[in-house]
Amino acid sequence: MHATTHHRDLYTVEQVRALDRRAIDDLGISGFELMSRAATAAFACLCRHWPQARRIVVFCGPGNNGGDGYLLARLAHGAGVAVEVIELSDASLGDAAAARDTWQRGAGITHRWRQESSLPPADVYVDALYGTGLNRAPEASVAALIERINASGVPVLALDVPSGLNADTGHCPGAAIDAQLTVSFIAAKRGMYTGQALSKVGVLHIDTLGLPDILWQGMPHDSALLEATHLPPRARDAHKGDCGHVLAIGGDHGTAGAIRLCGEATLRSGAGLVSVATRADHLLALNSARPELMAHGVHGPQELQPLLERADVLAVGPGLGQGAWGHALWLTALDSGKPLVLDADGLNLLAREPRRFATPAVLTPHPGEAARLLDKTVAEIGLDRFDAARALAQRYGAVVVLKGSGSLIANPDGRLDVCIWGNPGMASGGMGDLLTGVIAALLAQGCSAWEAARLGVGLHARAGDVAARHGERGLLASDLLEPLRLLGNGLEHV
Question: Which of 23, 27, 96, 491 has a C-alpha 20 to 30 A away from that of 400?
Fold first, then answer.
């Protein structure tokens, strides 16, 4: 369980090591005692999740993660569970060597891993191969073992982190364990909540090993998990002018749907007035489908200017295109100095013509757009999403939402939050257009760029989870509009 005073805090691997050292040096808790507590917590979790398990196999590496595994094996053996240990080597040192000796003295069954070996049958496999110290691809023989475990069909409990996953970044440089359950110790590691980690950790349980809250006092953390929040109720005498006027700019030929979705999400998220600047041939469709949107056909900057003057906040990019029309509107919008949300082709144009924002701005790139904005490859963005999000915020002087599994929200001052909601059904067209509208609406209602991005990402992802109750596959962006309205009003049980 999380300690109550820091339940949202996320830590780097080095910060967790500092906590571990503090527990040993300042609280007088030995490393072997911490290892024993980790094994006890993990075995209890195994028993809760697989109460019928009568045979387990524990895969142990030579480090402290393997030490946790040996002690778990000893506990399981003492509880009458049939246990086998498969170890990578006998080269354990320090507390891990003591843990191995404890298992060996109990006359437990131990095998050395060889690639030609077959895996023993079991009800549960326990992964104690590598801990948080691994930041490279596993060597070939261990990679073969990991792939064999993943292909076995046996459920896996991972200790601290699934082996092969970088606990700092969420990236897997090579083979990595696919766990059904991960028990992580002392504190939440930031990389477990984003990127490839979400397909590896399964159900994630944090156990603080009974350590007192004083351990965390004065210790820095890296980032935090988003909380489920919403705006307070409106004043009873509120009118539409109090709730902000958003101008959504985009929808080149053939992309009216993008700007409509953006505009509708802005309305459903509480903006008092929403105007749309788009191609004239889209007006009939927009007015017919959503008359609450004030749609205007604009041919260029001259027709956009009066709309800009009336707006409080801009949403720029959905369906904008990168041609002469889109570029002219983009340049005029950015030169207006209005607070804005920039997405899609608005970001692609920014990559071509970089600028640092002096007024409140939120950028919402997916990894491909982030790569262009940082002049990197998509693969390089995936290596460390935390570093990429913070680099974008610093470079452009804007709050940045790096979208994807476990979206990140980064502030230029270094603060960063991680979204814990969302689902694979949201990997479909139009979802980003909605998010642009949601954040713009929150800006218009008085939120700072940081507050609007955090709240908007959370509402958008939670609405996606509500909509996915009818199934993830086939989820449409427009399915989120009604849940957005409900969640934005604090109606949690929808």
Answer: 491
